[in-house]
Amino acid sequence: MNKSLKIVSRITLIIFFTFSLIVNAQSDEDVLKTVYKTSLTNGKSYEWLDYLSNTIGGRLSGSTNAELAVQYTKVELEKLGLDKVWLQPVMVPKWVRGEKEMAYIEANGTINKVNICALGGSVATPNGGVKAQVIEVDTYKDLEALGEEKIKGKIVFINRALQPELINTFQAYGGCSSERYAGAAEAAKYGAVGTIVRSLSSRQDDYPHTGSMSYGDLPVEQRIPSAAISTNDAVKLSEALKKNKNLEFYFEMSCQQFDDVESYNVIGELTGSEFPNEYIVVGGHLDSWDLGDGAHDDGAGVVQSMDVLRLLKESGVTPKRSIRVVLFMNEENGLRGGRKYAEVAKAKNEKHVFALESDAGGFTPRGFSFDCSDVMFSKIEAWRPLFKPYLIHYFEKGGSGADIGPLKSDDIVLAGLRPDSQRYFDHHHAANDTFEHVNKRELELGAATMTALVFLMDKYGTETITNTKEIKD
Amino acid sequence: MNKSLKIVSRITLIIFFTFSLIVNAQSDEDVLKTVYKTSLTNGKSYEWLDYLSNTIGGRLSGSTNAELAVQYTKVELEKLGLDKVWLQPVMVPKWVRGEKEMAYIEANGTINKVNICALGGSVATPNGGVKAQVIEVDTYKDLEALGEEKIKGKIVFINRALQPELINTFQAYGGCSSERYAGAAEAAKYGAVGTIVRSLSSRQDDYPHTGSMSYGDLPVEQRIPSAAISTNDAVKLSEALKKNKNLEFYFEMSCQQFDDVESYNVIGELTGSEFPNEYIVVGGHLDSWDLGDGAHDDGAGVVQSMDVLRLLKESGVTPKRSIRVVLFMNEENGLRGGRKYAEVAKAKNEKHVFALESDAGGFTPRGFSFDCSDVMFSKIEAWRPLFKPYLIHYFEKGGSGADIGPLKSDDIVLAGLRPDSQRYFDHHHAANDTFEHVNKRELELGAATMTALVFLMDKYGTETITNTKEIKD
C-alpha cells in the first residue's frame, strides 16, 4: 500500500472510530459512572490493602511475608469468581537485612548517631563494623577524577539530592537513582571501604530509604557495604565534614544474600467472550521492601489491579478479551516475576494487546503514561472527555511500568497509572511507607480509573490495532 | 452598538489578545518557570505555616491565638519590604468551647463513650448535661413530618453522610452542611432537647468535626445544645438504636458566647507601577477552628497568599496594579473580615479588578474556579497551556471563596484555588487538621500556582475588562 493511501486509510479509520465513539458515548459514560460509583461506595481495594499492610506487612522477595501475600491474594482472587486463578512459579533472590543497622559520626571525640539502612543487595560490614574517614561527592561520576589516592580506605558519601524544582518527582528520583544503584561498585574500584548514599527522598526527615543496588561484575571479595542515610542526617554529615574533614563515620550492618528461592506470580483471569486468546494484563507487584509495610509501593497497585476485575464484573461488563490480573513477584530487587510472565507468554504464543501497571503509589490518579504507537495514542487521547468528570487529565506518551516492560512489542499498548507524585518519595522504600498514609478515596479513584481504561481498551482499543496491522499488510 | 458588531468586536478582541499572548508567550513561560522554581527551592510558605500551626496553634476568632497570628503575620509581611502593611480593625464574635465535651450511649445498663464536640455557636448543655432518648433522622427536613409528638424531649440525631460517589468532596460537603448549620434551630421548634449531627467527614474515624451553626431568630430561651459526633460513633449510635430504640444519649458541653471583640484583617500591599488605583487581592483566612491547629483550614491559604507577593518580588515581577495580600479574620463563624474589607473598599471607592482566595487546603493544586463573565473566562482559559507543565488543568466557572465574595461586582474577576479535594474533609474542622498533614511541596505548588495567575491577571486580565467595558459603552 502506498503512503498516501495509507494516510487516507488512517484518516478513514479515525473518522470511523470517532463516529463509533459518538454512537457509543452515552453508554460508555454510563459504564464509567457505574465503575467509579462502585469503587467509591463498594470497593474492596482498601480492605485488601489493610490486610496486606497491617496483617502481613513488608513483603521482601523470598521472605515468609511474601509467601503469605501470595497465598492471601490467591484466596481473595478465588473468592471473586474469576474464570481461572493460578500461581506461576518463579525463582527469586533472597536478601535479608538482619539486625537493625547502626551508624554514627565521630568528630572531636563526640559521637553523633545517624539513621541509616542497608541498601538492598549490599554485603554486610565486617564483624564490628566499618570506621573510616569520609569523602563527600555529589555523584559517583566524580570518583574517577578524585582517583584512588583520595578515596582508598575511606567511606564515600554520595550526597546528591532530588531536584525540588522538578514537578514530576519521578524525574527527580531518576536523576539520582543510579547513585544508589551503582555507587558502591564504582567506589570499590578506587579502594573505598563503604558507601553512604543520601536517601532518595523528596523530604527532609529522619527516615533512611532503601532500594536496590548492584555490584555489577565486581568480584565478591571487592564488594563493599552500602547504606542509605536519612536526608536530615545527610545534611548533618555534610555540615560536620565542612567543619572537620577528618571526622570518622562508623556503620555496622549484618545483611546477607542467600540462594534463590521459589516464589510465585499470582494470576487471575476473566476469560474473554469474543476473543479469549487476546490478553489484557493489569497488575502491580506483590513484593515490597522490608522497612515499612509496602502500602504505597506497591500494595496499592496490587489491590487496585485485583479490584479492576471485580469492578468490571460488578459493573456488568462482559469483557470481549481475556483480562488478567497479574501480581508480580520481585519487582524491587530482580524483576524476576515480570520477566517470567513475559517468558511464559511468549513460549505459549499468547497474544497480549494491552498491559497496565499501577506502581506509583495509591495517591489521587491524574492519568496515564502510554508506551505505544502514535496512531494508537491518538485513539486513546480521544477518550479524554470520558475521564474529565473524574478529573483525569494526564494522557502522555512515556514509560509504563517495570513489570510489564518485558511484554513490550510492536503490537502491544503498555500503560502506567500516574497518580499525583508529590508525596510518593516521602514514603518510597522507607519505614513510613505504611497503610495510614494511603487515603481510601484516592486508592479507590485509582482502581476505578484503571478499570475505566481497561474497559475502553477491551471494547475499542485492539480493534484499532488489528486494523492498523491490516493497513500495514 | 448592535449585537453583531459587538460579536465582531469581541472576536477581534480575542484574536488580538491571543496574538499578544503568542508574542509574549516565551517571557510568560519564563516567569512561570521562575515562580515555580523559586517556590519549590526557596519558598517561605512552609516555614510560616510551621510557626502558625505549631508555635501559635488553633486561631478561633476572638482568642489570644488569633491575636498572636495577627501580630506574627503583620511582622512577617513587614519583613518582605512591601510598600504598605497595616491592620484593618473588625469586630468579631467570641465563642469559647470550654471544657472538653463528654458523651455516652446508655443502653441496657451499659455505658459506651462516644466522641463529640460542640458545634461553633452552640449553647452549653445545662449543668450536669443532657440525657434523653434519641430520634434518628437523615436530614432536618424530616423533622416536620415527625412532628412535636415524636420529637419533644428527645435528642435529634441527624445522621446524614457525605455521598462518597461525588468526585468533588466539596459537593458532598455541600449536600450536608445545612444539617449542621440549621439542624438545631429546626429541632428546637419541635421541642428537642439537643441535636447530635454526624460529622461532615469523608472518612470513617473517631474525630468529631466542628463548624458553624446558627439558631437563626430562635429566642435565647429556646436554644438547644448541638454537637457533632465522629463518623465511627455515628455508625455506632445508629446501630445501637436499631437494637434498642429506647436507649439514652448523654452529653455535656460548657461552651459560651461572649460579646464581640475587636480583631483585625492583616493587609500588605505592593503598589502598582502603572495603575496603582486598581487593586488585586489574594488572600486566605487567619482564623481557624480550635480543635486542630488549622494548618489546612486555612493556615495554608494564609501562607500561600503571603508568599504570592514575595514570589512576585523574588521572580523580578513589577506589578502594574496594586497587589494586596489580605489575611481575613473570622471566616469560620461570621465572615466579618471579608465583609469589613469589602465595606472599606467600597467606602474608599477602590477599584478592585481581581480577587483570588485559597481556602480549600494545602493539597496539590489542580486549578481554579472562576466567578466572572464569559468573555473574561474565555480569556483566562487561553492561559491553560502556560500551566500545563505544572499539571494545572482545572479551569472552570463556579464559586470562588467566602472572604472575597463580598467584593463581587460586574467588574471583578473572583477566583478560588482548587487543590485536590480528596483528603480535605478528613481533616476539616477537626483535631487532625494539623501541620504534619500538609505536604511541603504541595503547599509550595499551590503558592506558585496562585502567583502565576496573579502575574497573568496583572499583566493581561484587566485590559480585557477595560476593553469589554468600552464595547458596552
From TrEMBL, chains A, B:
Gene3D superfamilies: 3.50.30.30, Zn peptidases. Keywords: Carboxypeptidase, Endoplasmic reticulum, Glycoprotein, Golgi apparatus, Hydrolase, Lysosome, Metal-binding, Metalloprotease, Protease, Secreted, Signal, Zinc, Zymogen. Residues 1-25 form the signal peptide. Homodimer. The monomeric form is inactive while the homodimer is active. Residues 265-451 form the Peptidase M28 domain. Pfam families: Peptidase_M28. This is Carboxypeptidase Q. Its main location: endoplasmic reticulum. It is found in: Endoplasmic reticulum; Golgi apparatus; Lysosome; Secreted.
